Amino acid sequence: MEAREVGPLSFVDVAPLALDRFERVLTPEQEQELLRMVARGRVLLEGRVVWSVNSTAHGGGVAEMLQSLIAYARGGGVDARWAVIGGEPDFFRVTKRIHNRLHGYAGDGGPLGEHERAIYDESMAVNAERLASHVQAGDIVLLHDPQTAGLVDAMKTAGAHVVWRAHVGLDSPNDQARDAWRFLLPYVSGADGYVFSRRGFAWEGLDQSRLTIIPPSIDPFSPKNQDLDPDTVRSILHVIGLQRRNGGAPVVTCHDGSSRVVERHAELVEEEPLPEGAPIVTQVSRWDRLKDPIGVMEGFVAHVVPVTDAHLVLAGPETRAVADDPEGAEVLRLCVDRWHGLAPEVRRRVHLAMLPMADGDENAAMVNALQRSAAVVVQKSIAEGFGLTVSEAMWKARPVVASRVGGIQDQIVDGQSGRLVEPTDLESFGAAVAELLLDHEVADHMGKAAMERVRMDFLGARHLGQWVDLFDRVIAATEAVS
Ligand code: UDP
Fold first, then answer.
1. How many CB atoms lie under 10 A from the CB of residue 392?
2. From ligand 1's centre to the CA of 413, what distance in Å?
3. What tens digit of pLDDT does each residue of 206-248 get?
4. Is the Cβ atom of 378 under 6 angstroms away from ligand 1?
5. CA dihedral defined by 53, 55, 59, 60, rounded to 10 degrees?
6. Is 377 strand, coil or helix?
7. Of ligand 1's atoms, which has the minimum distance to the CA of residue 315?
8. Pocket perturbation via mutation, ligand 1, pick of 361, 389, 390 by most ligand atoms within 8 A of CB
């Protein structure tokens, strides 16, 4: 994957991926459905470009998904392309504020008024002009998240079918969320279709007939999710710097079929590497308050450390790497401060890893190894659109303890394919983690059930099928009128 700068807007080259590899993971019924969908999609999208537009090529769930879905769409014969908008730091401060509010939180507490609208409109206008020079009438433009909502009108004017997709939301809207909706609604409402990850996320005031629910998905063959043998896992942890003893070769297979050797160290905050054989509890997330890394640390220290010999690994990207996430560095600093404040005998049980993001495949391999090495994966988010990290861990047959928020509730059936806990209840969180660490039989059973759940509902093939259905409806609705 390579991002080419074109002024404020860039295009990401994505190599096609053949869809037939899904044979290895789908049930026969799912496979038949996939074949039907590919045939239908090819006819429907002949002569059209399907554009996906978001605000970062690396880091976060949306970029992760687009990389795979666009590659498979291309492999299925569709001219799918990816554009990444650019913007000044002020623009991303405004969109981060909107993002936090859509989750129901005040974020930095600043306003969303006329000044912010002017900042937003200015960045959007520059991006719109660039993008419009590439988009043809009849194309499909999929705009992702608040950062791109301001492009709807310009893309409609260019003659495209425009769908806006929200990846965040909250189940019971509050004033913060309504504030963000008010800001975004004038941009979004003109789209031909709106997509939300869950029914409960759909905003008041949108035309219900244009609404579609599509949960996210993972790619089982990506460097992030592909099978890794225990030796490879060990060797990747060794390269990261978390484990002393080496395993085999730290090699994964990239999207394009080539091999990638994992070679960069992570920046670590720890007393010493993980002890041999210690059970590991892991959360992988951007450094974001809503992922509550400090709560994970507190819950682990208070309720897991006293009853097990487990170690906690909190992993996330190097903070300078995620362009549209200006708060990351500060949250990481707070985590490091909290870590320094722990008593020394407890501190050695907690490890912070800032993973290099210079190479997407290498970073993904690290996340893969970290999730696979965990006895229990946690995702203690305060709010969550979907939480791809949950499906990623479930696909690896890990037992997951996660907050009962947003799309996490659609992935985990509590007590069967993982454990759901209230997001601020550190005691229940710690108790669920400790129970799974201590009862291997339950943990094993839950992990296997988790993998099956992802196979049935959260792999990319299902997602692509839903896109084809949606495009079919949108094209039929708009081209019938004209
Ligand atoms: N991720 C990653 N490297 C990191 C931290 C996170 O690749 O250092 C990935 C993670 O594996 C997942 C995505 O970023 O695929 C996060 O998606 P999720 O839906 O969990 O949360 P978001 O960041 O979109 O809020």
1. 28
2. 21
3. 999 999 999 999 999 999 999 999 999 999 999 999 999 887 8
4. no
5. -70
6. strand
7. 8
8. 389
What is the spatial distance between Cα 482 and Cα 479, in angstroms, rounded to a whole number? 5
Identify the CA nearest to 161 among candidates 181, 133, 139.
139
Beta pairing, strands 49-54 & 140-144: parallel
Q: Is the CB of 61 under 6 A from ligand 1?
A: yes
CA–CA gap between residue 190 and residue 207 (Å, rounded) = 10
Ligand 1 centre and the CA of 355: distance in Å?
12
Residue 361 CB less than 6 A away from ligand 1? no
How does DSSP classify residue 382?
A: S
**3-state SS assignment for residue 443:** helix
For 313, half-sphere exposure in the C-beta direction (CA atoms, 13 angstrom radius) is: 34
Whether ligand 1 lies within 6 angstroms of the CB of 392 is answered as: yes
Q: Please answer whether residues 422 and 408 qualify as being in contact, where contact means their C-beta atoms are separated by less than 8 angstroms.
A: no
- Check residues 384 and 156 and name the one with the higher pLDDT: 156
Q: How many CA atoms lie within 13 A of 332 on its CB side?
A: 26
Q: How high does pLDDT run on average in the chain?
A: 94
How remote is the CA of residue 479 from the centroid of ligand 1, in Å? 37
Is the separation of the CB atoms in 152 and 164 below 8 Å?
yes
Is the pTM higher than 0.85? The answer reads yes
Tell how far the Cα of 19 is from the centroid of ligand 1, in angstroms: 24
For 134-173, letters b (16+ CB in 10 Å) and e give ebeeebbbbbbbbbbbbbbbbbbebebbbbbbbbbbbeeb
Q: Tell me: pLDDT of 177 over 90.
A: yes
- How far, rounded to the nearest angstrom, does the alpha carbon of residue 318 sit from its chain's CA centroid? 16
- Nearest residue to 368 via CA among 345, 393, 343, 347: 393
Q: What is the largest CA-CA distance in the chain?
A: 71
Task: Tell me the DSSP string of 1-52.
Answer: -EEEEETTEEEEE-----GGGGGGTS-HHHHHHHHHHHHHHHHHHTT-EEEE
The ligand 1 atom nearest the CA atom of 364: 7
Closest CA to 368 of 247, 227, 482, 462: 227
β partners of residue 143: 53, 164
> Which pLDDT tens digit goes with each residue over 76-110?
999 999 999 999 999 999 999 999 999 899 988 99
**Cα separation values, 149 from 49, 54, 129, 155, 188, Å:** 19, 10, 14, 11, 6
Helices 175-188, 89-102: axis angle to 10 degrees equals 120
Task: Give, to the nearest 10 degrees, the angle between helix 440-457 and helix 426-438.
Answer: 110
Tell the residue number behind the tokens 């996430």, with chain if given.
325
* Beta-carbon-side half-sphere exposure of residue 474 (alpha carbons within 13 Å): 28
Q: Which residue has the tokens 């999207």?
A: 255
